[in-house]
Structures are given as structure tokens and as C-alpha cells.
Amino acid sequence: MWKEQLPREKEITVNSFEKAKEFLRSDYKVEQIGVNLAEIEVDQDGWLSFSDYSFPMTDWSFESLCNILGIPVAFGRRISVDLLLYNINALKHVRNIRIVVLVARETVINIVRHPFVYTRNEALLDAMSDVVQKLNLNLHEVKLSDRTMDVKLLYQNDTLSMEPIPGDPSRIGVNICNSETGFGNAQAVFWVLRQICTNGAIANVKWGGVNMTYDPEISQERAIDNFMSGIQNLSINYKQFAEVYKRLVDHELNVNELMSVWRKVSRITGNDLADSILNINKKDRSAYLEKIRIDDSLTPTGRSAYQIYIGVTEAAKKFPYHVRQALEIIGGSMIDLPGDNKRSV
Predict the structure, then answer these.
(1) Is the predicted pLDDT of residue 58 greater than 60, yes or no?
(2) 133 — pLDDT class (breaks 50, 70, 90)
(3) Residue 182 resides in a domain
(4) Contacts 24+ apart (CB under 8 A), 7-10
(5) How high is the pLDDT of residue 340?
(6) Is residue 95 predicted with pLDDT exceeding 70?
(7) Is residue 241 part of a domain?
(8) CA separation for the pair 314, 61 (Å, rounded)
(9) How many domains does the chain have?
(10) What is the spatial distance between Cα 187 and Cα 124, in angstroms, rounded to a whole number?
């Protein structure tokens, strides 16, 4: 398959709402084109054509096309291009439905079923400006990519600062994600920024979160207002969160806990990078897996949860946005690791 020659994702990070809106009107302006599935053609180079249009596809829009056609993505990547095109041409007639092709910078960035419901990123940013002032939040960054807009806000309130180790402060904020290209509805959850190295973690939604709901009976403006009201009403049991966060320092991971984190990371980065991120050599990894096999998984590893937390979230900064986000979510899941799982939001 032609994965390596497909267009790469474009992403950019800015530190103001106005700058983000400028990019949404230019580099990230998305055109929606409706077409019947049976009318599309895919060529040997991964270009999608229909009517008078012809555009290269991104890898993730290829995945979306496979899902619409019912072709397993792994199978589509493994087979020859000729066999893949044969399957596409056969199935597009069997599954002929109305689809929407999403295009930015003359490139297909996604393919979705019609009707396509979404929330405009710019409309969210407009509404967010008022909420930031009301909640005494600072904008940390807005990251734009072809798939997602990610907004990270920090509470200015010093009482929401934590210091698990002297001289290593962290702050709590709100992370808001949205996709106007079919990769997820708007959601707001808490996140944590470690200020020394600016590595962050996205907290488990059970600590508190708000999801955008779509109701055909109300306008998008009303839906956004409801979403913003939910953000204003967000609250976190800060004392409990800070206690769990601090316990990361003293909690020594056992084999099962360490390898659980390793498995999550390896699914995203591959085994070798997971070894590097968690600072595990292959010999130790094999030994840990053997202990799990013989039911000796509670053996201490000598590694603190905070060490691993820092390793995962620090490594996240080096990857493209969607890998970074996945690693930050893994880091956030570790905040639940020590002690019991009781939470109060």
C-alpha cells in the first residue's frame, strides 16, 4: 500500500485565539463536497477522484474510506494496490451511500457518511473567549491539526497548584478538544501541566468532564452555549486529586503495573520506542513478561509511578499531535494508579 507517499498531517501551535482563527480561515479552511460513494475513483497513487475533482488522500482519510466500504484497515494496508483497488471498486457499488469528502489545501483529510454533524472550531473559540475571562483562566496553547483542534487552558488560581516534589510544581487546567472534520465531538476535561518541563497529562474524564451534545431540536449556537455552561460548572475535588498526584512519587510500580503502562505505550509507538520511553531494556522486559506468565506480577520493579509518568508525558512532546495526545491520556490514567479508585467530582 502507498502509506509512505500519502500527504502528512499539517499541525501548528499558537498562543492566541485570534491567531488560531486566522489559521482556521486560511490553512485549515475545510470544504465539504457531497458525492455518491459509487461515483468515486481511487488510482494507483492514492488519489481520490469524482466529478471534476481529483485530490490526494491522507492516510487517515484512507482509513475512513476503508471503514465506510467495510474493508478491514489492516487488510487494506497489507494487500497489493491492485487488489485493494479491485475491492474498492466492487464494494462502492454494493454500499452505495451518500458521503461527504472533506478537503483542505487541495487534500482529502477525511471521508464521512452523510449527514455530517459537527461543531465549527471558530464558533467554539468565539464562545471560549468569554469563558476564559469568567473562570480566571489563562490560554496555554491552541494546537490545530487536520483532524483536531486542541485548546489547553490553565487556572490562574494559585491554590490549584501542586508540588509533589519540592521545586517541581504542576498546575491544573481545562483541555478542550473538537473536530470539525469527523474525528470526535467537542469535549472538555481537566489536564495537568508540569511547569518545569511543560509536559502535560490529560486527566481521566471521571475526575470531571463535559461533552458536546447534538440535538436536532436546538441550534448549534444553543448547543455551544450549553457546552460552555457545562465548562463553567466543572469542578474537581482538588484536595483528593492533589493527594493522588503526590502519591505517584512514593508509589513503587509492581511488574503488572509497569507492563500495563508499557503495553499501552507500545500500542501507539511500537515496542522499541516504548522500551526507550519507559527506560526498559529488552532483557528486563522479557523478565517482566515471564513474571506475569508465572503469576509473579506483584514483584516490585524499583521504579516509581512518578518516574514513569514523567517519562511518558515528557516523550509525548516529541511526537505529532495525535500520538502526543494519546500518550498524555496514558499519563493522565496513571494519576489514578496509586491507592484506591474513589473519586469525587
Answers:
(1) yes
(2) confident
(3) yes
(4) 7/56, 7/57, 7/58, 7/107, 8/58, 9/58, 9/60, 9/145, 9/146, 9/147, 9/320, 9/321, 9/322, 10/105, 10/145, 10/146
(5) 45
(6) yes
(7) no
(8) 29
(9) 3
(10) 11
Co-location of 7 and 89 in the same domain: yes
The structure's pTM equals: 0.90
pLDDT for 233 beyond 70: yes
Reply yes or no on whether the pLDDT at 345 is more than 60.
no
Does the pLDDT of residue 200 top 80, yes or no?
Answer: yes
Q: Is the dihedral of CA 300, 304, 309, 312 positive or negative?
A: negative
Cβ–Cβ under 8 Å, residues 189 and 209:
yes
What pLDDT is stored for residue 343 in this prediction?
36
User: Is residue 154 a part of any domain in this protein?
Assistant: yes
Residue 22, in any domain of the structure: no
* pLDDT at residue 339 is higher than 60: no
Query: Are 186 and 285 part of one and the same domain?
Result: no
Q: Is 249 left (phi over 0), alpha (psi -120 to 50) or beta?
A: alpha
From CA 233, how far away is CA 241, in angstroms rounded?
18
pLDDT at 156 over 90: no
Residue among 96, 9, 1 at smallest CA distance from 50 = 96
Average pLDDT for 24-40: 96
Give the residue numbers spanning the domain of 59.
3-11+28-113
